[in-house]
Fold this sequence. Notes:
By secondary structure, this protein is an alpha+beta fold. Helix content is 56%, strand content 7%.
Amino acid sequence: MTADVVDKVLFKCKGLPNFNQFTPQRIEKEFPVLLEKLNSDFNDIEAEFSSLINNEDLDWVKVMNPLNKINEELRWSWGVISHLNSVKNSEQLRNVYAKFLPNVINLGNKFGQSKIIYKALKILREANNLDLTRNRILDKEIIDMEHSGISLNESDQKEYNAISERLGELSTKFSNNVLDATNKWFLILENKSQIKGLPERVLELMALSAQKHLKKEGNVDSKVGPWKLSLDIPTYTAFMSYAEDSSLREKLYKAFVSRASNGNENNNQIIEEILTLRTKQSKLLGYESWAELSLSTKMASKTDNVEKLLEELREPSFKAAELELENLNNFAHKNGFNADKQLQPWDISYWSELLRKEKLNLDQEALRPWFPLEDVLKGLFRLCEKLFDIKVLEANGEAPVWNEDVLFFNIFNNSNNKIASFYLDPFSRPESKRGGAWMDECLNKNIDSEGNHIVPVAYLVCNQTPPSKNKPSLMSFEEVQTLFHEFGHGLQHMLTTIDLPQAAGINNVEWDAVELPSQFMENWCFDKKTLLNIAKHYETGEKLHEEDYEKLCANRTFNCGMSTLRQLHFAITDLRLHSNLSSYQELNSDEIRRDISKNTTILPPIKEDKFLCCFSHIFAGGYSAGYYSYKWAEVLSADAFSMFEEAGLENDQKIKDIGKKFKETILSLGGSLPPLEIFKLFRGREPKTEPLIRHLGL
């Protein structure tokens, strides 16, 4: 179907969405029709299951196929709305999303609290005549229903549902506040002294942004200005790293860490209410805390196991970070920083960049011309072709997109059969797109009711530096790593061989194992052959020099203590906020975080620092009591990559063989088996922490 043909039915719940037709007006008009259908279908399922139970005529097909159909229809339809709310946000869409969110939550609770469905699943499981994968799916479905309040009495169930609905509202409000607060703050700079030290690329970005903001016409002169300073990540990180004006860095830093903590966009009370409600809900379900509830379905299983891992990493990281800060202070004092003062948080990135240049002779900004997006993608695809025997081909125009910058690709196997597709939305759009980077499902691998094989389709979303008028998108090395990371998530979704959508790709994978493929792919950014195959100057075609590669490798462990400690601070704070808070008595979440920071930061948070107010991972995403997953999975990914290192990264045949094994286990099997079992199928043993410690240089 071409984009100019109007679909009679917007929510067709199959195939690729026709994004250009998903206007807030049509969603508001047509989504209620779908909700009514889904409710009717649900009633029919309950009636059918009741008959099957009475006649003792239950089997997998009769029970799971209709449940899968209705779940996929809800996931497809609400998934499109949620996706657009993240990448094409507007006041109208936001209002429509908020309007229907309670309906979706209530429908989910209705499914999760159906005694007839629960009974059917239990009977099917207790029969124990199915394979391991199907039994694992049933176990997950049953525990999900138990965590949805199926066993609660009527009064408790009513309270549970009210909490679920309220948590959904609060999460949405939290996310909107972060987006609005980020967009709200800006400064128009007109004095050249204010932009001293900034690379030309950044000045171009800021000048274009100022022109757009001030609604000026004509050519932009990045050397004359004006320039718009904002909290958009590409601008923020560059300014903090390169701007010589310390007072402006301070102002920008304070604005960034205090986002969504005051005025109309204030998340302070939202955080307290979220934490209170999560605790209430977990206790209703028989758990002491939200962390205990969350970990009951994760690989780590218990808070003690997580605390143990985080502490094993915290101690060496803290010692390394202290030494790094001391060295950074000494360097700064030798190079003009006031000898009577210590570095402040807004000084760290700036002086670190100068020290990096001196110590490693590495100018990260100067390397951007070697990483144009197009060439990075080509290199990434060549790597995947070598490792996983697939081909990735551009297919722009084949699928409707939500923004002109969005790219579309197909993936083929060695028999030239299409096995998957994905969208790539690479660039920052601060006015309408939430920050960060993520992978999400568009279509799951499946066999539909008519026997058609559905190939998986992924959304890959980044927020990297957009192209300027005269230059393509030139990526920082960190942005390259981010792209590889998200593509790793995408590979697990797209290369699955499991036809049961409940266990295909990332579905049914324990949350703390989901980051394994993504972090595994990041390791290839430091493989010599891979990187030199990618990096090519966008104007001259010159390949990256070997000495620059060596510098990037050395940079991997540069100030690694501080960066690791920062992640551990987030993870420990998240875990403690969602554990039994009685030990903290009357402290609020910010005070608890500051108490934790005594052992997890070397520069205590300044009074303006309200980081929790923009900690979307745990208050508006799926990482509550789960942020530790990044470090947990990093152990797995580093150990998995060490198998390639042990074989010799220059040995193409061995690399292909191990890549095939990685594909046939980690990427293929998805949630069909426990992640530890899959890991052992690949590695031949349980994971070890030594490779991660080595990679971190600790």
